[in-house]
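User: Second chain of the day. Same drill as before.
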Amino acid sequence: MSNKGHRSGGKFGGSHTSYIPLAEVLVDIVAGYQDVVKISAGFIKAGLPSVSGQRRVKLADIQGGVLLSIRDNTSHQEVWVYTSDVSKTKRSMSQMIREKKIHLSFGEQADE
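Assistant: Same format as last time:
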């Protein structure tokens, strides 16, 4: 069985530990942030209509962290990032996402 997209140990937690390709890239970077204490993956919705490569991320505040709603080409996943400094982590993630030329939005709740 392949472990592609799988993350566990260290800051990665939860019972679901697989990530869609765009989420993999983002969580690998976010895991290196000093203030991040835990990253938890949500379920993957696959087989969605193609967005023709227009990947996007939406950041939403949650208690103790930031929720990332990640839309890759034909899949969607939510990722919870828990941190000791929400503002700093959110700023760092925003900058990193923009540098990667991924569409970024902010909101109260995540959506597809």
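The chain has two helices and six strands.

User: Great, on to the next one.
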